[in-house]
Amino acid sequence: MGLLLVEDDDAIAAPLCRGLALEAFEVEHVTTGQAAIDRIEDGPPPDAVLLDLGLPDIDGLEVCRRLRERSSVPIIVLTARGEEMDRVVGLELGADDYVVKPFGFRELVARIRAVTRRSGGSGPGEEPTDAVDLGGGLVLDGRARRVTGPDGEVTLTRKEFDLLEFLASDPGATFRREEILQRVWDAHWYGPTKTLDVHVASLRRKLNDPGLVETVRGVGFRLRSPSE
Fold it and tell me: Please, what is the angle between helix 84-92 and helix 60-70, to 10°?
C-alpha cells in the first residue's frame, strides 16, 4: 500500500517513514505543499495522503483543498492544530480524517487502514446500490458513486457520499449516531462525534436542501422520504 507523506519536519518524518515501512507501507516523502500537488497531478495516485498543515510554502488546508480538487485519494491530516474549528475546516475541505499531534503510532496505522478500506469500495454497504431518487431532482447512483441534481453533478467527498448512501439505504428510517459512525467511519470509531455533524452540515449545504437530512434530536439522523 502506497502512502504520500507531506511533512517538512524530518524529526517527525524520518521515524514515521521507518515505522510505516515496517508495517508494509510504501512511503513517498515530500516536504512542501507544492511537491504534494505536483505528485498527485503527475503520477499514479497513492492509496492515501498523510498531510501536515504547517508546511513552509502553502498552508496545509489550502493544499488539502487543491488535492481534493484533483483527486479522490483519501487524505489524513496530521497536525498540532487541535482546535475544533481547525478540524471542521479540514473536514469541510475534503480531509477524510484528522489526527492531532502528538499521536500514537498504532492509532495512526489503524486510521490509515480504516480510511483505505473504503477507498476502493462502494461505501459502507456490502453491495453498491442502484440509482436512488432523493427527491428535489437529486439522484444518487451507488455504482458510479455520484450524485446529480438539477444543475448537474454534485461534488462530494468520499465520506460525504458514504454517509448519504448509508442514509439513502432506508429513506425515512432513523439511524442512531453510533450506528452511523460505526458503519460509515469504522467499526471501532473512537474519534469525536462532531465529525458526523460536520459532514451532515456539509451535505445539506452542497445539496442545497437543508431539510434532506433530518436531525432526530437525541437519537441521530434520517434521510427525508422522497414522498414527503
Answer: 20
Domains of the chain: 2-117 (3.40.50.2300), 132-223 (1.10.10.10)
User: Is pLDDT larger for residue 110 or for residue 87?
Assistant: 110
SS (H, E, C) 46-77: CCEEEEECCCCCCCHHHHHHHHHHHCCCCEEE
Residue 13 to residue 224: CA distance in whole angstroms: 46
pTM for this structure?
A: 0.56
102 preceded by a cis bond (ω within 30 of 0): yes
Q: What is the pLDDT of residue 193?
A: 63
State whether residue 195 is helix, strand or coil: helix
